[in-house]
Design goal:
heterodimer; A: mainly alpha; 56% helix; B: 220 residues; alpha/beta; 2 domains; 4-stranded parallel β-sheet; 3-stranded antiparallel β-sheet; 7 helices
Chain lengths: 131, 220
């Protein structure tokens, strides 16, 4: 078992991080109208035959959105579960376009920071693939 | 991808000597992927530095990319609280961080080694010298600048061994033999029969690239 799997989740730390970015998160969760315009600006979405898992808004809502709704009250398994969504399914190219102006990559970036704070990140030295 | 490796510990220790409050900044881009400057490597270096000097206060922060200011939000907040910054990014990232916080000394914890590919976990190979005049179309996808020991543009030289290795090192394949063999396989040997003019050596000066479609935006 690797260090990442055995590390306990510090929920208070996650809550603190979420609290700090609360206004930005509220904006995306309240203002995203699910127009899916961001989808076609994502080359990963396009190259995966329109698989909704690659839709930028989907990635944020199902990772950071869930973290926020749970107020950081998540376990290690949850963080491992969203790891693929924020690392494998997004390269942070900053090309996704949101007509409302939501900074989607910033949200993905922030989700990665939360995962990192709990020791969850791609285990490249163990042969785990990034993309 | 840019490949880097950690500097010798003694060198890093000497650079940060005298600073008591340091922020070690990892990069989530290339140096994470090449296992030199990601979260794990940041933690490892901090543990080593703390073991060496228990009085030292060294914190860590990994930002997604040190070569793009869009990712500097968290660093902007933390950086002013420290006497010095250690950067585990490539040389471009280190300079970008330094340019952003001019009053804080920024030290490189890595040596940027080359632009290359992943052969396997932790095994990387240089494939491009970023010369700015790519000839791979005519050389069957084998770079003579990078792979020929002499960087010869119109090869081969007279030092190719009978077994197709390089005179400089018998374990190094002669790039021009490989180019010839692959072009033969593709029926395109004519591509290297014409002498190429001298190069402009564009990689000897600092380069900036603005893609054609964006030139108007930055015209001023």
């Amino acid at each position: 078992m690797s260090d990442q799997e055995t590390k306990a989740v510090d929920r208070a730390e996650i809550s603190k991080m979420l609290e700090k970015k609360a206004p930005e998160m509220k904006r995306i969760l309240n203002y995203c109208v699910h127009c899916s315009i961001c989808a076609e600006s994502c080359f990963l979405y396009m190259s995966h035959d329109g698989d909704p898992q690659y839709m930028p808004s989907y990635k944020v809502i199902n990772s950071l959105g869930k973290l926020y709704k749970k107020n950081g009250n998540v376990d290690h398994e949850f963080l491992e579960g969203i790891k693929g969504m924020v690392w494998n399914n997004c390269v942070l190219c900053h090309r996704c376009y949101c007509p409302i102006g939501i900074d989607i990559p910033r949200m993905i970036d922030f989700t990665r920071s939360i995962c990192r704070s709990q020791g969850v990140f791609p285990k490249l030295d163990e042969g785990e693939s990034w993309l | 991808m840019i490949i880097a490796e950690r500097k010798p510990f003694e060198e890093i220790k000497e650079m940060v000597k005298g600073y008591k409050n340091i922020l070690n900044v990892g990069c989530g881009g290339c140096t994470s992927i090449c296992l030199a400057g990601g979260q794990k490597e940041v933690n490892q270096l901090n543990a080593e530095l703390t073991k060496e000097n228990p009085e030292l206060n060294i914190d860590s922060l990994v930002i997604e990319r040190q070569c793009n200011y869009d990712f500097f939000v968290d660093l902007d907040e933390k950086a002013p609280k420290y006497d010095a910054i250690l950067s585990m990014a490539c040389g471009a990232g280190v300079q970008f961080v330094s340019e952003r916080y001019t009053s804080i000394p920024v030290f490189p914890a890595l040596n940027t080694v080359f632009c290359g590919v992943d052969r396997n976990v932790g095994w990387f190979e240089e494939n491009c010298r970023t010369c700015g005049e790519c000839v791979l179309g005519d050389t069957a996808g084998i770079c003579p600048v990078t792979r020929c020991a002499k960087g010869i543009f119109n090869g081969p030289c007279g030092g190719t061994r009978i077994d197709g290795s390089c005179e400089v090192d018998k374990d190094t394949p002669c790039a021009w033999t490989d180019i010839f063999n692959r072009l033969t396989e593709q029926g395109r040997v004519d591509k290297i029969t014409e002498v190429k003019p001298p190069r402009l050596w564009q990689n000897q000066v600092r380069r900036t690239l603005i893609q054609e479609d964006y030139k108007a935006r930055y015209a001023e």
